[in-house]
Amino acid sequence: MQHEHSRRKLVHQWDAYPFGVGSFRRARNVVHGALRGRSVTAFEYSYFLMSDSVEENGYQRDSAHWFLVCVVDLDHPVPSLAAVRNVWLEWHGDELPGPSIDVDHEKWSKMFTLVGEDEDFARAVVTSENAARCAEADIHAEWRFVNDELLLWVWRGRADNQLVPILDVAKPLIEAAEGYPRA
Questions:
Q1: What is the pTM (predicted TM-score) of this model?
Q2: Do 30 and 4 form a contact (C-beta atoms < 8 A)?
Q3: Is 33 exposed, middle or buried, given 0-12, 13-18 or 19+ CB atoms closer than 10 A?
């Protein structure tokens, strides 16, 4: 495992949520290693939203946001697919990679919306077992397959206490995605 204090280029590598938003974007506590032979980079990503209005009491409503982000390199490109928390759908705007795909798991469906262009791929990755694992993890996370990467992010996550649990949830998703027949 390798550790770097920060790596500036990481905040500009992707443009979909949670990236490309806010000011003073930082990638800190960068860890690089391997997960079952796959390259993994994890880092704590933060940004600020600065208010352009002043409240009655004279204070602005600036806010800081931080995420634990984990990027896993896949062995080949896969169709785009995203699991978005229902309460955060509005934050994604029009960047989602296709229509909503129903998942036959009650707890999953209360928490997440699955979005993608390839319904067969979606069903191969988000099986009932994988949906249950994601729903039971009880972490404020989302994930997205983009080309040959899996991006996961945990709202207010920290590498020291949430990296291992998020990778445990990711392993079966990665294996299912890589096991899906290539186009």
A1: 0.83
A2: yes
A3: middle
